[in-house]
């Protein structure tokens, strides 16, 4: 079983070798900063969004950012707001903006707080909340590194690296220090088929086997990676 699981992880890690790579050695970071001025309202100063439902772009892999902007532009990734912005960008604009954001430093997140959303349950003490969050983080760390063998969920580490740093040549995104709320939404969108622009629909194949609790746990854990 372990050999089968390792083979699955390696297959997923290599699955996007046919991805288009957009790295541009002539990209201009300074020009990218100017061109990214309109992005600040959603994605924050230097790409560190202050709104947890908008992704941080700082320190994101250049090839991944370019790939996503091209996907918004050609409609393979659906988002009306981003589509209208991307369609106004030239290939050079996209390269410059991606280079600028990759050159920035991603900000750290505060530790998430476990909330009991069930009104029928008694309120938790601070110690109980801490214990609950410790378990969520432990579960998320285990899932990130080892996957869920029983349900054939691949380990995130196979594609996104031991510290969530991503894989630039394969255009796999960096995940470290991303907002947990954004990660939860993104994984849920993949799970429900609302987003399908990953190579070979890989992320849908993985997330459709993940439980809501697993998505939450791994998102919380990734949000604390640095």
Average pLDDT confidence is 89
Number of strands: 0
CATH first level of the largest domain: which class? Mainly Alpha
| CATH topology value of the largest domain | Cytochrome Bc1 Complex, Chain D, domain 2
Low-confidence stretches: 1-20
Per the principal axes of the C-alpha atoms, what is the gross shape?
globular
Report the order of strands and helices: HHHHHHHHHHH
CATH architecture of the largest domain: Orthogonal Bundle
Total tally of structural domains: 2
Q: In angstroms, what separates the terminal alpha carbons?
A: 32 Å
Protein model, in words:
Helices cover 50% and strands 0% of the residues. The radius of gyration is 18 Å and the shape is globular. By secondary structure, the chain is mainly alpha-helical. The two termini are 32 Å apart. The model is unreliable at 1-20 (pLDDT under 50). The protein has two domains: 2-16 and 109-115 and 123-223, Cytochrome Bc1 Complex, Chain D, domain 2, CATH 1.10.760; 29-102, Cytochrome Bc1 Complex, Chain D, domain 2 (Orthogonal Bundle). It has helices at residues 2-14, 29-35, 40-43, 62-74, 80-86, 91-102, 126-146, 157-160, 180-192, 202-207, 212-223. The protein contains eleven helices and no strands.
């Amino acid at each position: 079983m372990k050999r089968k699981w390792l083979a699955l992880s390696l297959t997923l890690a290599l699955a996007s070798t046919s991805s288009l790579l957009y790295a541009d050695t002539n990209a201009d970071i300074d020009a990218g900063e100017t061109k990214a001025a309109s992005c600040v309202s959603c994605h924050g100063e230097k790409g560190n969004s202050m709104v947890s439902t908008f992704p941080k772009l700082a320190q994101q892999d250049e090839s991944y950012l370019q790939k996503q902007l091209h996907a918004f532009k050609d409609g393979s990734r659906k988002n009306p707001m981003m589509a209208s912005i991307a369609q106004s960008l030239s290939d050079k604009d996209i390269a410059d903006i991606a280079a600028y954001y990759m050159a920035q430093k991603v900000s750290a997140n505060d530790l998430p707080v476990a909330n009991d959303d069930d009104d029928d349950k008694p309120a938790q003490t601070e110690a109980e909340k801490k214990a609950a969050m410790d378990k969520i983080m432990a579960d998320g760390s285990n899932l990130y590194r080892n996957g869920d063998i029983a349900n054939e969920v691949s380990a995130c580490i196979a594609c996104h690296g031991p510290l969530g740093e991503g894989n630039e040549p394969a255009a796999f995104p960096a995940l470290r220090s991303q907002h947990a709320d954004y990660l939860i939404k993104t994984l849920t969108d993949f799970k429900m088929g609302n987003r399908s622009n990953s190579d070979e629909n890989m992320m849908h194949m993985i997330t459709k086997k993940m439980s809501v609790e697993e998505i939450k746990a791994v998102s919380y854990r990734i949000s604390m990676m640095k």
